[in-house]
Amino acid sequence: MHKVYNTSMKELTIPQRFASTKMLQIRGLLMLILLIIQFLAGMTLDLFIKLPEIHPGTSGGYLQQTLDGFVWAITNGGGIALTVHMVIATILVLGSIATLGFSIAGRHKSWIIAASIGLIGVWLAFLNGLEFINTNQDKHSFAMAATFMIAFVAYGAGLYFGKTKTTSRL
To answer: What is the pLDDT of residues 134-149, one digit of tens each?
Structure first.
């Protein structure tokens, strides 16, 4: 395994370097920034864009609807605003998985908790967003907004409580 040396000559492996407190703080801040951009894109959609009643994803079984709706949305089927919203949502899902993975690799207890809750919030917002695209039901829009807030608060708490490394015995 490759080794990296910092100024104090303390040996760190590459995964440890990317799982440092500073890197987790940067990841948490990036997640918050992406969540804010996602919120603004979502509000643009909500206020100014009307999704068509019938499109790929509005018929078929649940898994087929979900896949068809995702592909339709991400390939500009619903317009540029929806595509941007879906691309950011996909980046948020991947970023939340990476943040949790690096939190575990670095054994940062406060970040493991924050990133776990953040992942749950992002994933539920993503799923409710897909369901909203396919059904156009307000309850899914509300659930998307509520779970967005859970993720936002989780990453904010990670930034606040994760300033120093708190290790856990995993």
So the answer is: 999 999 999 999 999 9
